[in-house]
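We give its fold:
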Amino acid sequence: MSVFKNIFSAKKKETLDKGLEKTKTNFFSKLSKAVAGKSKVDDDVLDNLEEVLVTSDVGVDTTLKIIERIEARVAKDKYMGTDELNTILREEIAGLLSETHTGEETEYIIPMDKRPFVIMVVGVNGVGKTTTIGKLAHQFKKQGLKVVLGAADTFRAAAIDQLQVWADRVDVPIVKQKMGSDPASVAFDTLSSAVSQGTDVVIIDTAGRLHNKVNLMNELTKVKKVMQKVVDDTPHEVLLVLDGSTGQNAFEQAKQFTKATEVTALAVTKLDGTAKGGVVIGISDQFQIPVKYIGVGEGMEDLQVFNKYEFVDSFFKI
């Protein structure tokens, strides 16, 4: 059993390394220029490092935290060579992530005392929300859990159709109504069906539009209240899906959605096609919401449970 686990872990890590390749190459290219001709970490190096982190989409506030931590270490150690900078950065970023993430997560564990476990998925259109839901359903099903999907994004017919495609692909049931139906009604029907069928996990898709935050807030609040008529403490998880390739745009979306509803977890997608993977560090730190999943490829298994140690190791692997 442990042998298979190790083989899977190695394959998962290899996929993560490959998925972060563009981010890593971009980052180290900038870092090399930042320390060129310097043997010790001084004010100039720190100024250059600040620019490297900001332009790598780590975000201004998180960058300043990292710089302050390194400044404190330089002051304490009196001398720090630039050849140590990679190790120091790795340690400080791991430290930052540790403030939001605990343990070495390997899979999404559903609490035994919360069945059906209800995940409400939010995020704007185009971030990979439906794909994330489909891949989540696949992973839960692999764990031997009964899953049902709820197509509560009734604003677009395409959203319902796309979720149906994933339900068929993963071979899990879906509850849907016609376009324009009340999203809360779909959520109510989904939970009612889940309870009667003895379902373990319910994943509810919601509309991905931000043109009017008040409407979004009201809609999500209504969906929650209606679901609580069926299962009183739902949703157990509100998962915000963000497109990592959009960099600072992802920060803005996180800001808007955290204002509109209580987000409890994040999924950052499309990291394999971008050099903006630093956004994971900044978003995790700034919003103090754990990143549960990262998307590092197109395959069904390439939505990975976020493990801070593996991520930092891949990010800084030379």
Notes: DSSP finds twelve helices and eight strands in the chain. The chain has a mean pLDDT of 89. The first strand starts at residue 117 and ends at 122. The longest helix spans residues 2-19.
